[in-house]
Amino acid sequence: MAGIKALVGLSFSGAIGLTFLLLGCALEQYGVYWPLFVLIFYILSPIPTFISRRLSDDTDSSSNVCRELAYFLTTGIVVSCFGLPIVLARTSTIQWGACGLVMTGNAVIFLTIFGFFVVFGGGDDFSWEQW
Question: Tens digits of per-residue pLDDT, 71-92?
């Protein structure tokens, strides 16, 4: 039952994050849909971690090169996702209010992705490998 509650909570927070993103695009005073390109970063961000968890074994306690590379790539993707709205706002492609809404949506979505790995990332009988 705890897994179901966590899944419902994660889906609710993901919906809140996407709502902030869509408000930054669709409100009448903003009306530009360029910030939706951050959806690509949302899709790409967990992929290096999924690959490294699949390829690396957790038997050794030392640092794993595959996992460290995955953390590095994930960090680059997350920083790029936060940087894109700032660059778009600096070039006057979007307004600063839309940038703030997109950045809020980014924070909520990435906290949701992090929460997914915390809740379903363990080796217990209910893990992300079942999905």
Answer: 999 999 999 999 999 999 999 9
